[in-house]
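Hi all, long-time lurker, first post. I run a small reading group and we've been trying to get comfortable going from sequence to structure in the token notation. Rather than ask abstract questions, I figured I'd post a concrete chain and ask someone more experienced to write out its structure so we can walk through it together at our next meeting. Sequence below, copied exactly:
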Amino acid sequence: MDRKRVIAEAIHSGEMEGAYVSAEFREDADEYVAGEISIEELMRRTKRRWTVEGKAVSHG
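-- Answer (accepted) --
Happy to help. Here is the structure in token form:
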């Protein structure tokens, strides 16, 4: 499966479940699709965005 399709399906699935998909995540996902970053880097950035001082935070 290609990167663009994987990301599109992941975003769609999240939105169908009521998840908020930020502009920042979309920008990172675009970099992943373009091959500029790895899936590991995408996950690191996402996790970093959702944690503050080692604690998970709610963006809802």
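A couple of things your group might point at:
The chain has a mean pLDDT of 90.
The first strand starts at residue 51 and ends at 52.
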